[in-house]
Amino acid sequence: MDPLDFLEPAELLNYFHTHKTEMSCMETPHSFLSQLRDHNLIPEDRYKKIIRMKSKNNLRRAVYDILDWLETKKSKYIRVFWRCVFKDVMMNQYPTLKQLHNGLMDGSYHFDSELPSRVESEESDERGSSKLSDREQKQTKSPKKKRKVRSDGDDEQPGPATEQSPGQRKKHKKIRYSSPKKGETKDIWTWPLYKTQLPVTCGKVEGTLRRERLAQGQECIVVDNRWFTPAEFEKFAGKESSRNWKLSIRCAGIPLGKLIKEGHLKAGIYKKRRKPAKQSRFPTSRSNTDEEDSEDEESPQEAEASTGEDTGEEEEEETEERVEPAEVSPDHGKRMFKVTCGALTGTLYKDRFGSGKCGKSIRTELSWMTPVEFVNVALNQSDASWRKEILYKGEPLSVLIEAKVLMIHSLLCKCKLCKPEPQDLENQKNDDECCICKTEREDKLVVCDSCPRSFHQDCHLPHIDDSIVRDDGQWLCTFCVFKANEGCRYPDKQKTEVVMSRQISQHMLECPYLLLCLCSADEEQIFSTNPVEYLESYSSIIKAPMWLEKIADKLQRKGYQTVGEFVSDVQLIFTNSATFNRNNPEYLGMGEQLKQLFEREFKKAFNIQD
């Protein structure tokens, strides 16, 4: 008889309830989710949505939500759940499941008698239930067939035949449009799972921090089997200019400086070293006689500015300099590169790069191009060498190739860049992710017929109706419609006060265009979501929070009467940012840049006279 048969369903359910978080933290939970799917324990639409997530934090939250849904909706199948996950093949892959199995078998689990009674306020219960139902409704109504549906192979990462097999894709992007869940992500450093190590990020580069190595002042962050000190990791991630790793390196969005100050982490002393007299832009190796790079530990005053609080003094010690392994170019961690050729500028995307003729990897304002096409348009020369003519930071693109930052695919490579199908070539003409939320959700992207932009139906303003998706006619996004009508809207100069008093119903092109400009420019999605949900002290400082998603929702629901009301809410975002981030120059600068963009585009949209 199965040992699980000796346990009551209530005991199994309670054991499930108290270990949901542990299961949601399992690394690469795709096999775990597939097992649940094979036993019909999770809906097919939810499985497909979660399985394509790329951000580890968002994947953990999504797995937790699925487990929470199982507890609520499928509790009568709790015995089926444990039997399917306690298969030998699953426990061998996930040590967490093996520990849970042992806990059940040896009787070391704890039941309801040892837990406090669960109490939920009426407000929280109403909010939680409405969120779940809204999400489920949205998934049910979300159409599967979109206009110019991108091929299902978008998940695949092209690569040289000598480096990886066709069809593989390295996951880079993170989903940024959803907010961290209260009581979960913000306390990640207190979870038992992370007692010895923590997931950290610097810019778009992810790594794992070992706590004891940080406390000893050693190389403490590992990325792809390479160890870095905090300053080296900051440089590797392309954030060397900040020279303040306690601010630039974060765990679940919280700077390490704050965690150190609050006692969650201990940091050893990282000494300063001399800068070399001359250094190659893209070094790949160096001899033991080279002078050491300068790794700067910020002063207590700098650390205080980075976190808004005093992080304590740390004295520097004079110690012997150590010989370090070969240096890695900071550009290895980048996914995008700003490039130029003549007067033409663009952004080269590493995961789209195949060779000079394979893969439309360079995105200009108007289109996607291969490197050869980019040079042809810029110089009007068909025989020009793209490796020499395309520049990155003033250096030819060949320097990145020699440093193995960019890898040219083998002539025998059969990936979708080197041997594309007609649908693959069509997909390369448009962006791989939504222009607004910067993610690839399960619902397909709707592409503009005039520009390279792609959108989710509910991200575009106005929302893209299903009837438009099904229509075979041409569809233009708000950016393109605005540009097409730019010359005929306001031939005469306008006054700001007159524009602000106008009914917004007369300007349902200009206002959505302005908001989409802000959402598209907010690359890190800092200003898109409600800051109260992920900044613990925000509500104590800011009494009237405002964010881009809320303004978009009001615009869609026609919640504004005048242009002035709309502008007032947008300006409130910038005011709140300046107040809350007064001691955080990085985010203060982001808010200021977004403010300048809005003011510039506002004057252009309404032909405002200075």
List the helices and strands and how they pair.
Blueprint: H1 9-18, H2 20-24, H3 30-38, H4 44-51, H5 56-73, H6 78-85, H7 88-93, H8 95-105, H9 122-141, E1 197-202, E2 205-210, H10 211-215, E3 221-223, E4 226-228, H11 230-236, H12 245-248, E5 249-251, E6 254-255, H13 256-261, H14 300-307, E7 336-341, E8 344-349, E9 362-363, E10 368-369, H15 371-379, H16 386-389, E11 391-392, E12 395-396, H17 397-402, H18 422-427, E13 446-447, E14 454-455, H19 466-470, H20 478-484, H21 496-500, H22 510-521, H23 538-541, H24 548-556, H25 563-580, H26 585-606
Antiparallel strand pairs: 1-2, 1-5, 2-3, 3-4, 5-6, 7-8, 8-9, 9-10, 11-12, 13-14
Report on this structure.
The protein has 610 residues and is of the alpha+beta class. The strands form four sheets. A six-stranded antiparallel sheet has the order 4-3-2-1-5-6. It has a four-stranded antiparallel sheet with strand order 7-8-9-10. Residues 110-114, 121-149, 151-186 and 273-327 have low confidence and may be disordered. It folds into four domains: 3-114; 185-331, Roll (SAND domain), CATH 3.10.390; 332-427, SAND domain (Roll); 486-606, Histone Acetyltransferase, Chain A (Up-down Bundle). β11 and β12 form a beta hairpin. The protein is built from 26 helices and 14 strands. It has helices at 9-18, 20-24, 30-38, 44-51, 56-73, 78-85, 88-93, 95-105, 122-141, 211-215, 230-236, 245-248, 256-261, 300-307, 371-379, 386-389, 397-402, 422-427, 466-470, 478-484, 496-500, 510-521, 538-541, 548-556, 563-580, 585-606, and strands at 197-202, 205-210, 221-223, 226-228, 249-251, 254-255, 336-341, 344-349, 362-363, 368-369, 391-392, 395-396, 446-447, 454-455.
